[in-house]
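Narrative of accomplishments. A recurring question from our advisory board has been how the design workflow behaves on a single, concrete structure rather than in aggregate. To address it, we present the structure tokens for one chain from the evaluation set, followed by the sequence designed for it. No filtering or post-editing was applied between the two.
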């Protein structure tokens, strides 16, 4: 191919890019495709037609009575959950119950006491405890967790 034809072809490609709104030879940045990296430059305009997800609102069941949670569970889990519910309500009759994060939470005087959760093949009884304030106890807990993670 003659040398002048190759250069004219390059010029035509540059002109067509500029006409399309793309960068020409002189305006290529460090993040252009020719430098081996894909994607647009930082701070550039977003892709047309791309929509961002709206921030979700509060859950529809937040603060709802817990009775509906127990009715939705499969029979095998419902039996265990009902027994745990009765135990909590029997031992702490003043406990307030409400749905939070899709699970029944029980609180006493505004402080979380426990929660119940149901999964495919098991249930959890989540007990709230005081925050660990002692550095020594916190260090022992971290060492124990590190040993079990090995």
């Amino acid at each position: 191919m003659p040398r002048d034809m190759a250069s004219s072809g390059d010029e035509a490609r540059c002109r067509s890019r500029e006409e399309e709104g793309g960068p020409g030879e002189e305006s290529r940045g460090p993040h252009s495709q020719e430098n081996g990296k894909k994607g647009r430059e930082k701070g550039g305009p977003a892709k047309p037609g791309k929509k961002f997800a709206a921030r979700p609102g509060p859950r529809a069941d937040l603060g709802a009575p817990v009775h509906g949670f127990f009715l939705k569970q499969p029979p095998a889990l419902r039996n265990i959950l009902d027994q745990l519910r009765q135990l909590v309500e029997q031992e702490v009759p003043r406990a307030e119950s409400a749905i939070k994060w899709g699970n029944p939470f029980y609180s006493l005087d505004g402080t979380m006491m426990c929660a119940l959760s149901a999964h495919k093949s098991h249930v959890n009884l989540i007990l709230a405890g005081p925050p660990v304030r002692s550095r020594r106890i916190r260090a022992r807990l971290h060492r124990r967790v590190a040993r079990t993670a090995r």
